[in-house]
Amino acid sequence: MTEFAIKGNTIITPDGVQKGVVYIKNGLIDDILPELLPEHTVDVVDIQDNILMPGVIDPHVHINEPGRTDWEGFDTATRAAIAGGITTLVDMPLNSSPVTTTVEAFEQKIAATYGKLHTACGFWGGLVPGNTNEIDKLIDKGVLGFKAFLTHSGIDDFPNVTEEDLRKAMPIIARHNVPLLVHCELSTDDVLATGDVRSYANYLSSRPNEWEDKAIAMMIRLCEEFNCRTHIVHLSSANSIDPIAIAKQKGLPLTVETAQHYLYFNAETIPDGQTQFKCAPPIRGKENNDQLWQALRDGIIDFVATDHSPAPPSLKQIDSGNFMTAWGGIASLQLALPVLWTAARERGFSAIDIARWLSEKPSHLAGLSHKKGKIAKGYDADLVVWNPEQSLTVTDSLLQHKHKMTPYLNEALHGTVEQTYLRGENVFDNGQFTQLNTGNLILR
Questions:
Q1: What is the DSSP string of 270-281?
Q2: Is 215 within a domain?
Q3: What does this protein do (predicted)?
Q4: pTM (2 decimals)?
């Protein structure tokens, strides 16, 4: 369908919610009109009161291919994405083998996507000790920016960087004006918990707020010194909100995301032994998480991304329930929109907020704001139609991820995805995939 229109009563545009018609031609949004003009003799999809929103952009996804496709892969991850209204992903450089820290490894990553992409997909390069000489070459090959850890990543071949490493890399990254994404925890050995390994409270105490707060303070300092675009991933410590706000008020090129699980769950209600809740930084207490919501409301936190990081049941220690040795990662990609909407609607937020947090703001981080993340003339017709009132229960059969282990299993959520459009092509419709292998690579 190269030319058609979507008619609806709730179209989210940069100017707010509109009633009207989005005219789509050759994969692009050609116009937004109150009604179709007489010369527009095209098919019309009438979505009535469902919401039409820019396709969700998730810039924090661990797809793990090549090398660890038994954890997740491009086929299953991007199927889950379009079933969840996600039209663009950016893949993280670790958990695959080899990790994406060299041009050679990046070329293997690109080759692994062939015949398996059902969404648009970009890539972050990895920053590790000793690979500073790869930064320019990886950018030339098309990575959208770089990811670094300040504590052990969980993967031995993706070691964490030190301040010395960052001082070598950040001037180069700043020269190219691409973002440096940072997992902000500075760990110390003397605070590790030694209690019941099945206890969530014990695990939480093993990764205190201070780890994050020290790391974020260091990144703010280096961001200012090198004027390097710096992005703090999956903020969980509310203690760091005020320093981040001050840094932004000073005009530093600093952005921040949090994740759905920090907004939906609270530590007080996580059962012992349920390692599907384990992530790093950990899900903290309700008082802390309420402050994250306020920071989202105030614009201090820019957007929300899943940090989808699945692993096989054996690595998640599902049988033993050992929080201390289980893989730290939450599978949630397909549920990005309904999880956030379910929690947000209870707090008085609107679908406009959802579009800003899941579509518009993430497009800026990935360097795609000129063509994705808005319903506007000339933009890619990457769109999601969703019903804000309809509920769904998360079941094994619903999920397209390779592994069905998720803390959201059996949760009742609001906000069902009715249709997903990728560059004007209907790829998901009322629970069915209508077209596959229509995704594309996004290279800088």
A1: PPTT-GGG--SS
A2: yes
A3: Catalyzes the reversible cyclization of carbamoyl aspartate to dihydroorotate.
A4: 0.97
- The range of the structural domain enclosing residue 255 comes to 54-364
At residue 433, φ and ψ (nearest 5 deg) are -75, 125
User: Alpha-carbon distance 120 to 97, whole Å?
Assistant: 22
Q: What's the sign of the alpha-carbon dihedral 133, 134, 138, 140?
A: positive
Cα dihedral sign for 312, 318, 323, 325? negative
Q: Taken in order 62, 287, 350, 231, is the CA torsion positive or negative?
A: negative
CA–CA distance, 86 with 240 (Å, rounded to integer): 29
DSSP state of 177: T
Q: How far apart are CA 264 and CA 250, in angstroms?
A: 31
Percent of the chain as helix, strand, coil, to the nearest 5: 30, 25, 45
Residue 195 has pLDDT above 90, yes or no: no
Q: Is residue 380 part of a domain?
A: no
For residue 227, the one-letter residue type is N
- Our count of domains for the chain comes to 1
Q: How far apart are CA 293 and CA 285, in angstroms?
A: 13
Residue 248 lies in a domain: yes
Q: Which residues have C-beta within 8 Å of that of residue 86, sequence separation ≥ 6?
A: 55, 56, 57, 58, 119, 333, 334, 336, 337, 384, 420
Residue 200 tokens read as 């969530």
Is the pLDDT at 246 greater than 90? The verdict is: yes
Distance CA 331, CA 399 (A): 10
Could you tell me if residue 436 is inside a domain?
no
Separation in Å, CA 74 to CA 90, 91, 243, 336: 11, 9, 37, 17
Alpha helices in 84-239 (DSSP H): 103-112, 135-141, 163-176, 200-206, 209-226
Nearest to 80 by CA among 112, 106, 58: 58
Please state, in angstroms and rounded to a whole number, the distance separating the CA atoms of residues 298 and 312: 38
Q: Is the pLDDT of residue 374 over 90?
A: yes
Q: Rg (Cα) of the chain, in Å, rounded?
A: 21
Task: Tell me the torsion sign for CA atoms 69, 73, 75, 77.
Answer: positive
- What confidence score (pLDDT) does residue 220 get? 98
Q: Tell me the pLDDT band of 187, cut-offs 50, 70 and 90.
A: confident
102 neighbors 109 (Cβ within 8 angstroms): no
384 with 363: CB under 8 angstroms? Answer: no
Q: Write the single-letter amino acid at 61.
A: V
Closest CA to 90 of 328, 303, 312: 303
Q: Residue 232: helix, strand or coil by DSSP?
A: strand
CATH for 316? 3.20.20.140
Distance CA 375, CA 29 (A): 7
